[in-house]
Amino acid sequence: MEKTMFDMATQLFEGQDVRFGPIDHEKDPEIESKWTHDAEFMRLYDVAPARPMSAALLKKQYEKLEKQIEEEKNLYYFTIRAKADDRLIGKALIQWIEWTNGNAWIQLGIGSAEDRRKGYGSQALRMLIRFAFAELNLFRVSARVPEYNTAAIALFKKLGFVEEVRRRQALDRDGRRWDLIVFGLLNSDWQNQVRA
Amino acid sequence: MRNLFRGELVRLTAEEPGSRAKVEVHWQRDTEFHRLADSDPAGMESEKKLKEWFEKRNEEGFKPERYSFSVRTLDEDKLIGFFGLWLDLIHNEAWVGIGIGEREFWGKGYGTDMMKLCLQYAFTELNVYRVSLGLHAYNPRALRSYEKAGFRLEGCTRGDVAREGRRHDSLWMGILREEWIQMQNGDSK
Amino acid sequence: MNDIFSGKSVRLSAVDPDDFSRMFTRWSQDSEYMRLLNGNAIRLNSIAANKKWMEKELEGPSSGLYFFSIRSLADDQLIGEIVLDVSNWTSRDAFVGLSLGERENWGRGYGTDVMNVLLRFAFTEVNLRRVTLVVFEYNPRAIRSYEKAGFRHEGRYRKFLNREGRRWDMLLMGIQREEWMEQNMESHQ
User: Fold this and answer.
1) What percent of chain A has pLDDT over 90?
2) Residue C188 in this model has a pLDDT that exceeds 50
3) Could you write out the DSSP letters of every residue in C57-73?
4) End-to-end C-alpha distance for chain B, whole angstroms
5) What is the CATH code of the structural domain delimited by B10-186?
6) CA nearest C155: which of C133, C183, C140, C182?
7) What is the per-residue pLDDT for C3?
């Protein structure tokens, strides 16, 4: 998939089975609305409280998102789509970008349980990291993961992220407290990996 | 019940936008202060702009996510610093931002007194479960002060900040309510 | 982790202002429904007016207001609404209010079912300490349903309402986190 590191010809937005795409304001709200009704997905994806959202509300949120991207310039948002049928299967973000420090936070989710455990998340994450380092020229990216998200923890470790911070009992969910882990990956770590 | 707004060296206040803006202009000239306190690039804003910003905050009203205080010395009622608490309401966690803009007051126990009031407020009035903060690895004075206050080091994000041609780590600390309560009980002042 | 949005016969779903305002306008034609739900003088509003109100509610300060549609699991019909409104974050208390729009759905256990789902959301996702509700004394069906869901009687607003030529009490009921956890979570901290 990745022949060489600094190859201008390598597609940043095309993976093997998935691709990054812009928001489809017509089709995406309905699909994402379904994800928000799945508490399991919501709790894996984010620390904010799970709550179902209507397609109408998501449409408005997409507009706010695009406005923020344009005005604040500290966010990149991609939809993850299956190459076979262009179906929306997830989303990927690089956010809270501090340009002068060269750091940002990444977040990614595959919305439907049937689409998970197929390697789509791994492909999308690699593409996201490559974009962050080879196009945005960031020095490092961070990701925060609740300790109960064992699949994400395994994936981040596999891709060379280091557990840097353990925020003890920072999350309250399902009647108990959990640690929140911050993973970090440096541009230099990643380059060494890819070259090896 | 304890006096939440009065410590041994300082007291907490809410300042009028005008007076707060005035000192802020003064503090912004001290880039060492800025670089210890923040990670965004140092800059200087007009007093007018700053005043408008503080006025806008007043207009927004009280938000359950944010509690801000200014700090004055008991001695001469001098406005020397501030602290703010940003709450994650769902997980019941407070993030602290704290600073002393007047450098003559560094290293004299004022910061310790401020943090004491801050944690008291957070744990006994806001009833949070944990308090968190971040600091620069190049700020050892703050690290010692926070450790004394009961914060535990929870990790380090490598090369987080770029300044003076070098990369610097950020340190992250946290204190849980039960830990703070234990400290209070063990330490009968 | 538990699926927190589904119960035995109903599930929580997002509110779509279009769908909801249509259904609610229909339900409001039933004055008994309105008088069980509302303490203020009931009125008839158009779909457009209800939609505007709904959109404003949903757009408002988002911290602490959780608005859900209730749908039957059998045929996914929109059968009611339930709202959780945090009144005090530092005390972690919220008001809950619910209504089932069609009479044929009354007395079938849907109310108790949806309340259980909502309480799970309140205690394990929003992490509240207690949930409060008020109910009119002339609504015994609802009172019974809330008792079954674990609410306890905490007080009464005497002669609060004036309707049909006489005064009625409004009851205050509440449920604590520990009480609910004990009944509903196998193992908890």
Assistant:
1) 92
2) no
3) HHHS--TTEEEEEEEET
4) 15
5) 3.40.630.30
6) C133
7) 80
CA distance C178 to B33: 46
Smallest Cβ–Cβ distance between A39 and the set C4, C66, C127 belongs to C4
Which CATH number belongs to the domain containing residue A77 in this structure? 3.40.630.30
Q: Does A84 touch chain B (CB under 8 A)?
A: no
Inform me whether the pLDDT recorded for B22 exceeds 70. Answer: yes
How far, rounded to the nearest angstrom, does the alpha carbon of residue A77 sit from its chain's CA centroid? 9
Residue B42's closest chain A neighbor by CA?
A: A100
Q: Does B64 touch chain C (CB under 8 A)?
A: yes
pLDDT digits (tens, 9 = 90+) for B27-44: 999 999 999 999 999 999
**ipTM, 2 dp:** 0.91
Q: Which chains are adjacent to chain A, needing at least 3 Cβ pairs under 8 Å? A: B, C
Say if A93 falls within a structural domain.
yes
Question: Between chains, do B65 and C127 touch, taking CB under 8 Å as contact?
Answer: no
C10-184 CATH: 3.40.630.30
Asked if residue B168 lies in contact with residue B136, where contact means CB atoms within 8 angstroms, the answer is yes
Tens of pLDDT, residues C36-53: 999 989 889 899 999 998
Is the confidence at residue A5, as pLDDT, over 90?
no
Q: Is the pLDDT of residue B188 over 50?
A: no
Q: Is A162 on the interface with B (CB under 8 A)?
A: yes
Q: Partners for C (CB, 8 Å, 3+ pairs)? A: A, B
Helix (H) or strand (E) holding A89: strand A88-98
Neighbours of B156 (CB within 10 A): 16
The domain spans of chain B are: 10-186
Q: What are the two backbone dihedrals, phi and then psi, of residue B145, each rounded to the nearest 5 degrees? A: -60, -45
* Cβ contact A164–B40 (<8 Å): no
Asked whether the beta carbons of C133 and C173 are under 8 A apart, the reply is yes
Name which of B64, B87, B90 is nearest C127 (Cβ-Cβ): B90
Write out the two tokens for A145.
């993961």
Phi, psi angle pair for A178, to nearest 5°: -135, 155
- Residue window 38-57, chain B: list those with CB within 8 Å of chain A: 39-41
Note whether A172 contacts B92, CB cutoff 8 Å. yes
pLDDT tens sequence across A91-132? 999 999 999 999 999 999 999 999 999 999 999 999 999 999
Enumerate the domain spans of chain C.
Answer: 10-184
> Residue B118: is its pLDDT beyond 90?
yes
Q: What average pLDDT does range C129-144 have in this prediction?
A: 97
Q: Is residue A152 part of a domain?
A: yes
**Best mutation site among C2, C3, C5 for testing chain A: the one with the most A CBs within 10 Å?**
C5
- Give yes or no for residue C119 having a pLDDT over 90: yes
**Residue A43: inside a domain:** yes
Assess B2–A contact: CB distance below 8 Å, yes or no: no
Count of domains for chain A: 1
Confidence of residue B189 (pLDDT cuts 50, 70, 90): very low
Domain around A41: 18-195
Is any Cβ of chain C less than 8 angstroms from the Cβ of A173? yes
Query: In this structure, is residue A150 part of a structural domain?
Result: yes
Q: Which two tokens stand for residue C28?
A: 């409001």
Compute the nearest-CA separation of A37 from chain C (Å): 7
